[in-house]
Write a structure and sequence with these properties.
The complex is a heterodimer of chains A (482) and B (250). Chain A is an alpha/beta fold and 482 residues long. Chain A has helices at residues 6-14, 37-46, 51-65, 105-114, 118-124, 143-148, 156-162, 164-170, 181-189, 429-437, 442-458, 463-477, and strands at residues 28-30, 89-91, 127-133, 136-140, 152-155, 194-198, 207-213, 224-229, 234-242, 249-252, 255-260, 265-273, 284-295, 300-307, 312-315, 318-321, 327-336, 341-350, 356-365, 370-379, 387-396, 402-411, 417-426. In chain A, helix 2 (37-46) runs antiparallel to helix 3. With 250 residues, chain B is an alpha/beta fold. In chain B, the strands form three sheets. Chain B has a six-stranded mixed β-sheet with strand order 6-9-10-3-11-12, sandwiched between helices. The radius of gyration of chain B is 18 Å and the shape is globular. Classes of the chains: A alpha/beta (482), B alpha/beta (250). The A-B interface holds A 1-4, 428-431, 433-442, 444, 448-449, 451-456 and B 48-52, 68-74, 76-77, 80-82, 84, 87-88, 90-93, 97-98, 101-103, 105-106, 109, 141, 158, 162.
Chain lengths: 482, 250
Amino acid sequence: MSKYTEDDLREELKTKEYEYGFYTDIESETFPIGLNEDIIRAISKKKEEPEWMTEWRLEAFKAWKEMTEPEWANVHYQKPDFQSIAYYSAPVAVDPNKTLDDVDPDLLAMYKKLGISVDEQKKMNNIAMDIVVDSVSVATTFKKTLGEKGIIFMSISEAIKEHPELVKKYLGTVVPQKDNFYAALNSAVFSDGSFCYIPKGVRCPMELSTYFRINQAGTGQFERTLVIADEGSYVSYLEGCTAPSRDENQLHAAVVELIALDDAEIKYSTVQNWFPGTSEGKGGVYNFVTKRGLCEKNAKISWTQVETGSAVTWKYPSCVLKGDNSVGEFYSIAVTNNYQQADTGTKMIHLGKNTKSTIISKGISAGKSQNSYRGLVQVGSRADNARNFSQCDSLLMGNECGAHTFPYIEAKNKSAMIEHEATTSKIGEDQIFYCNQRGIDTEKAIALIVNGFSKEVLNKLPMEFAVEAQKLLEISLEGSVG
Amino acid sequence: MLKINNLHASIEDKAILKGINLEVKAGEVHAIMGPNGSGKSTLASVIAGKEEYEVTEGNILLDNEDIEELAAEERAHKGVFLSFQYPVEIPGVSVTNFMKTAINETRKAKGLDDMPAKDMLKMIREKSELLEIDRKFLSRSLNEGFSGGEKKRNEIFQMAMLEPKLAILDETDSGLDIDALRIVANGVNKLKSKDNAVIVITHYQRLLDHIVPDFVHVLYNGKIVKSGGKELAHELEAKGYDWIKEEVNA
């Protein structure tokens, strides 16, 4: 027992299987594979969408056909064959008019396995949940409580039908259909997602939460989230993701749009633990996500993300600081292990005067993984007194992984102040021995060091999420140092 | 309590310890002195179970149990404590959090539940007073941005919290000014009892004025070449190490 070799550790790591790797056999209705106008019309029809929505999708599809997959990111993978994916899959037992009590017991059992029993959530936690399995939002809890405050929280499909004026006004205003390859694809085929509207001056009394899960084999998940915080309102939104383990790669291309009107504030937190692939690098989710928020005058948007899953991550939650005095924040922990690849970061676009942004990025790489931070801080010519502070820290474990930082800065206004700090460190044998000597074993020592390294970001998460995130960090990295 | 027999140890095939014999009984204070590079810190690391060192011959017995096969944390659980010469930094982990983890991991190894928060708090309060440590200090990241003196004081604070059976102080006096030295030595003296033992590794006499040893050993070229009472330390202070080297090489 005196030696704890790299091999011992590696062996142990192998036994840490993906916790959420089960498949629930629910009867699903899945469209034939492939993508063409007919499929898009069929999706739209299935969802009983109005004509303008169908046209909007088709427009996106036309644009997408002319686009090519981006290759500038520091990730290498076999490109998905977009014609061999099924673009719509829904558990057939779902009827949007049903109440929670009517939900398919198999589905509820699945949530239990995930540790997010809706029933429990409803009673125990002050969290309203919208759950998206494959492509359809199954049940939305707390609707009534929220309704009393005028808050709308429902699946985007419902919102298209019930609040077309809001959806029509804001959908695609922050992430246009043609924004990028994956956003265009999402715009064409998105099947569900969440919609949230907070009326003027309302402070949302609870954390709103969506739980995504990819269940059906050979499907892509393309959810679309739209959050609108009207003037002077506040909302905190949580998003968690899991997927069963499968050998083939599953595609996930989501779009999230946030709109913070004058004096509004949106906090958006994500814990992503999609299946990362096996320890040999087989399977796993391709996570190609476009997230962006727009800040009007005095508004504030905070993105916090803990990214531990997915085989390939391509994700840059960004803020367009359009209004004067608006504030954008990005707090990120990205963990990669084995053969995972992550290229993630943010864009802070300063357009208004006295706009401020903060970027804190913590990358942790282990195994043979590659972890890149990519960020853009852009200050427009009219953005007097714009301020940015960026800090990018990388932590390496072992000798076979990589950490990369790609910070871009473009300032067109002389009064801009931009600071960038970066560090790279390695968990040292000396640190481990120090902990060991105090009676802390190596596994626990790594968890302690990683938690310390990530603390500034973990502190930004809402309480219940922070606990889950800490556990996830431990699971993702157990036994990854020799 | 501690019995070291003919201990040989090497790192990357380079022999550092070449036959150490040492017996430390409960209630005793031993000082290990010697010139730079004589193997003092290696001896401390080997007793604590640092993996890079390979024990090629001999053994280490703690309460008659051979601890050579035990991992560092298991030795710690049995009451071995090392005050590091160069304590490492762990950013983002507060002194309090670190201590809480260390104490509870040790308790877990003994089959005990976590220490209740109020007991922990009481203990922290008592021990930090003993070492004249400001409460604010405890919320800072472990050793990050600490002065040399703060680091050493923190080591002894940890010793106080963990209440070890055998404490090894590796050059705890380096980097300490006179006042800090007094506080640290005072702390160690208060923690001393008939049930525990202390090994003080140092270059200089000055720490031994405060922590008075029962035995002084001189380590040179991987061996203990001279042992004596506390007066040996005074002799070394006055005459340096050269006469010892000459004696050995003669």
